[in-house]
Design a protein that fits this description.
Blueprint lengths: L4 H30 L16 H13 L13 H8 L3 H10 L1 E2 L4 E2 L10 H16 L1
Antiparallel strand pairs: 1-2
Bound molecules: heme C.
The site of heme C has 31 residues, from helix 2, helix 4, strand 2 and helix 5.
């Protein structure tokens, strides 16, 4: 035992290091809570995206031309005309609640249940607008 203090010292250093780690994690968590960014919540919280952004982040996965799994592609008038003819109410209902039609399956809110109804509706409006042009 040439240096009896050495082992005890490193043990304390380890503990000290862990405490700093815990402290930093708590500060980081507190900061992210205060920033107003919705972390996760059972209730649909608006992410602040407009219709075009929702399309580009979510719906694009299936609705990007030529359309995946039977999804009507963005801007495809032929695919959209009969759907638009059903009326906006039906399109909204099918996108919000999910819909199994003749070409495939439209999942509830495009599988983004964290988005608000309003955001989904704006994305539908965006997609419908692209057909007119
Ligand atoms: C996992 C793939 C997928 C994603 C993601 C997806 N869709 Fe769809 N969607 C489909 C398919 C497939 C159909 C066609 C269903 C059918 O008519 O058989 C469809 C159809 C639709 C329709 C037409 C419904 C009707 O009555 O004809 C709307 C409106 C729609 N989607 C909106 C959206 C919006 C808005 C998003 C993004 C928030 C989205 N979709 C994301 C696959 C998807």
């Amino acid at each position: 035992m040439r240096d009896p203090y050495q082992p005890a010292f490193s043990k304390y250093m380890l503990l000290f290091g862990m405490l700093i780690g815990v402290a930093f994690t708590s500060i980081a968590l507190a900061a992210s809570e205060g920033s107003g960014v919705p972390v996760s919540s059972a209730e649909a919280a608006a992410t602040g995206m407009n219709g075009e952004q929702v399309y580009n982040n979510v719906c694009v996965a299936c609705h990007y031309p030529p359309g995946v799994g039977g999804a009507p592609a963005l801007g495809d008038a032929e695919a959209w005309a009969p759907r638009i003819a059903q009326g906006m109410g039906t399109l909204i209902d099918h996108a919000l609640n999910g819909f199994s039609g003749s070409t495939g399956v439209m999942p509830k809110k495009g599988e983004r249940l964290d988005l608000s109804d309003e955001e989904i509706i704006e994305a539908i409006e965006y997609m419908v607008e692209q057909v007119d042009h």
